[in-house]
Amino acid sequence: MTSAELPAPYGEGVAAPGSAAHASDPAKRPGRIRLHHLQQAKDEGRRFAMLTAYDQYAAQVFDEAGVEVLLVGDSAANNVLGHATTLPITLDEMILFSRTVSLAARRALVVADLPFGSYEVSAEQAVESAVRLLKEGLVHAVKMEGSAQYADTVRALVKAGIPVMAHIGFTPQSEHALGGYRVQGRGQTAERLRDDALILAGAGAFCVLMEMVPADVAREIDAALQVPTIGIGAGSGTTGQVLVWQDMAGLRGGRAATFVKQYADLRGTLSDAARTFADEVRSGTFPGPEHSF
């Protein structure tokens, strides 16, 4: 193995995650992003990116683009499978999506959600579910929604050798209990959210994701934690940022959430391509001689 293939910071001239060289020069990216690379980014004041991925082509594209973390989210339920919420997706379905992404990603750290119903009963249930995601889904870590009440579960997972990303703030699996999609951590609940983050990190979570949290609260939590944070709808003060890729690339139709920035109009591009294809088929233009044997 040459030095160029060694993970940062071990290989000479290999750029660290979150650096400009890492993003612009594929040859200088580490062989595989590991947990300590994300921690290094936090320690050195750098930032990193995370996108959801559910299939091999998206995973390959984002991996080659230098996105440090790929999240196989339970959001596959409402972004791939057609459900209205994340709740219906099963562990078996998550394993299938996870394995597809893990086999395609060469450099990115792959994290998978523990879906609703796969960890709430007991720490033992959580460990069993997470083991399947690592063993069958081939992911490198799991993400688990929940407050400080899941600290013992985090400890059990970490004890079993399973890295855990904690998810606080708005937790979609609890949308019915939370009264719908609402910002969390406003007013007097900000201190409780901070306590949740500290307790979960203290239990062994390598990272804390905050969703739909006021920017000033998320910034204070990031400053209070030694581990990196990731934000979605949590302002710019977190170590990393994540978006659902269909939102980021403009594939989803309808109104986007306030925190989404659309970097492309993939829905429009695909629509134009499909319309042109259909028109050419109807007119007899396609297939032409060059497309025939």
Automatic annotation (TrEMBL):
It comes from the Bacteria. HAMAP family: PanB. Residues 1-29 are annotated as: Disordered. GO terms for biological process: methylation; pantothenate biosynthetic process. Belongs to the PanB family. Pfam families: Pantoate_transf. Pathway: Cofactor biosynthesis; (R)-pantothenate biosynthesis; (R)-pantoate from 3-methyl-2-oxobutanoate: step 1/2. GO terms for molecular function: 3-methyl-2-oxobutanoate hydroxymethyltransferase activity; magnesium ion binding; methyltransferase activity. This is 3-methyl-2-oxobutanoate hydroxymethyltransferase. Binds 1 Mg(2+) ion per subunit. One of its GO terms (cellular component) is cytoplasm. 3-methyl-2-oxobutanoate binds at residues 74-75, 113, 143. It is found in: Cytoplasm. It is an enzyme of class 2 (transferase). Keywords: Cytoplasm, Magnesium, Metal-binding, Methyltransferase, Pantothenate biosynthesis, Transferase. Its cofactor is Mg(2+). It comes from Arthrobacter echini. It catalyses: (6R)-5,10-methylene-5,6,7,8-tetrahydrofolate + 3-methyl-2-oxobutanoate + H2O = 2-dehydropantoate + (6S)-5,6,7,8-tetrahydrofolate. The keyword Secreted does not apply. Homodecamer; pentamer of dimers. The active site is at 211 (proton acceptor). The keyword Magnesium applies.
